[in-house]
Every structure is written in structure tokens, then in C-alpha cells.
Amino acid sequence: MPAFFHPEFWNLSNAEFWVGVGLVIFLGILVLAKVPGAMAKALDAQGEKIQSELDEAARLRAEAEAMLAQIRQEKAEAEAQAADMLAAAEADARRIEVEAKAKLEETLARRQALAERRIAQAEAQATTEVKAAAADLAAKAAQDILTARLAAAKSDPLIDAAISQIGAKLN
User: Domain map of the chain by residue range?
Assistant: First the structure.
């Protein structure tokens, strides 16, 4: 049972009575001074401030999510572009490789044909030189043989002229 229902509580010499009276007077003064209204306004203002901060945070979050989505889209586009560039570079490399092989084969074929022509020319020149050397040697041998036979026999000016012309005709 509460203490204010006992008759000793209502005795004017009781300290608890005067504490209760002081409390009621204090609360009355607070009500007259409109402290509860001021506290409510302060709490409302604080609530509004917190609500505006929450709204700002929600707005910033929405912006961040939009930026994140945009960045992801740009990343995907950049990756696709990089893949396209890589594919194009690989295609160019293959094309350049094919062209280089074709040019190399063409160059090798030309060099081989040139080498074959030079070999054929060298063979023809060597054959000509061998024939000329053989003809010179044969003419010299014939000249020596005829000179030796004629020296043993009489010298004939017609034979000497014919022998000197043999060398010129065989070359």
C-alpha cells in the first residue's frame, strides 16, 4: 500500500509530505513555464533533423547505386570493347602472317628462279669457255703437228697461211 494513504503522511511535520508538495509545485512551475512544449518542440526539431539526415542518406544511397550501375555498365562496355579490339588485333595478326608468308614464298621463288638463271648462265659460260679452250688447244695441237711435219718436209707458204687461219676460224 502506498505511503500517502497512511495518516502520518499527511502530517505537516512529516518531511515526505513537504517533498511531495515541493515536487507538485516544481511540476506546476514547469508546466506554467511551458517546458514540456519546449521539450516537445526540441524533440520534434531533433526528429526532423534526423529525418532530413535519413532522407539525405537515402538520396545519397540512391545516387551511389545509380553510379554503381553506371560504372558496371561502363565496365561491361569497356570489356566488350577490349574483347573486340583483341579479336581485331588477332585477325590483323593472322592476316599479316598470311601476307608475310605469301611475300616470303614469292621472294623465295624469285630468288630461286634468279639463282637457276645464274646457274644456267654460268653453265653456258663455262661450256663456252671449255669449248673455246678445247678449240684453242686443238688448234695449237694441230698447228704444232703440222709445223713438225712440215719442218721435216719442205715449207709451203700456202700451208703456213692455212695453219695461221685455223686458230681464227675455230674461235
Answer: 34-170
